[in-house]
Amino acid sequence: MARQIADVEIHASDTRDLEEDNLDVSVDLIDDGLYLGNLACARDHKTLEQLGVTHILTVDLVPLPRSILDQTSLIIKYIKLADVPKEDLITHLPECNDFIKDSIANGGKVLVHCYFGVSRSASVVIGYIMEKYGLCYEDAFVLVKSKRRFIGPNNGFVAQLKLFGHMEYRLNRDDPRYKQFRLKMAGQKLKQVKILPQCFADLIKPDPGLIRERPDPIVYRCKKCRRIVASQSNIIPHIPKQVKVELAKKNMRPPPSKHTGLNCAENGQLLIEKLKNLACQMMESKLTADDSPGRSEESGQDSDGAAH
């Protein structure tokens, strides 16, 4: 049986008809030793032999059938993932990249596939290309699309790939954006299974009001009772939703990632300047409205009333 690498128990199908999906083989060479294809390609013995594939990375809801798993010459890794925006792709990117890198370094050829070879597997390959060449999401997407024209990661995967690039191709649990992402994932899991999975246990912080050893120097207290309700480490910096909306209305974007060459201070300064410009525009709009005839007359009446 093929060597199977996965973090979960796998039950391959013995009876599934390989022709029932009527899929044509679709596969493209993306990089040295790296192929991106669909399920039909991964199930086709002849194609695998012609390509010289030695490793298969399956990103799907079900593993490959036993007819493929039973091939002793293949090393297969299985990632269970649905093609929906709320799925947690980013957690698997480092292990997928390591699998691809190690396979190619040992002289192997890797096929990465999902069902159609469009979203899930394409996202994994884009993540690998980002790390290998130090690219941002947009540049990696263009590179992969030039090799396989019909790729299309869903919006959730795109956001996670951009975050992956922002964190310099590793999972940084101290990164504010990644903290927000994990909190969102934890909320979804808690809603589904009514219990918080162990992998999110680190998100539960001790009561800052009871910490006596090495307390955070910056704390936030209740205005009335003065009890400590949060420390600086509990705060996740973010741009308020209303500010994002106003920026979007003005065709402005939040500060770009580090791949633009800007450091943190420059990113912060860029945001401040954008917010200043936005505030000025909003004030100008308000003054224009205040200077309208009807408004001026109303303001004058208010002033007279105030004077009396």
Description of the structure:
The chain is α/β, with parallel strands linked by helices and 308 residues long. The chain contains 11 helices and 8 strands. The strands form 2 sheets. It has a 6-stranded mixed beta sheet. The chain has a two-stranded antiparallel sheet with strand order 7-8. The longest helix is centred in the last third of the chain and has 27 residues, at 264-290. The radius of gyration is 26 Å and the shape is globular. Belongs to the protein-tyrosine phosphatase family. Non-receptor class dual specificity subfamily. Its main location: cytoplasm.
Summarize the SSE layout with pairings:
Layout: E1 3-5, E2 27-31, E3 34-37, H1 39-43, H2 45-51, E4 55-60, H3 66-69, E5 75-80, H4 93-105, E6 110-113, H5 120-133, H6 137-147, H7 155-166, H8 176-193, E7 219-221, E8 228-231, H9 241-249, H10 264-290, H11 293-307
Parallel strand pairs: 1-5, 3-6, 4-5, 4-6
Antiparallel strand pairs: 2-3, 7-8
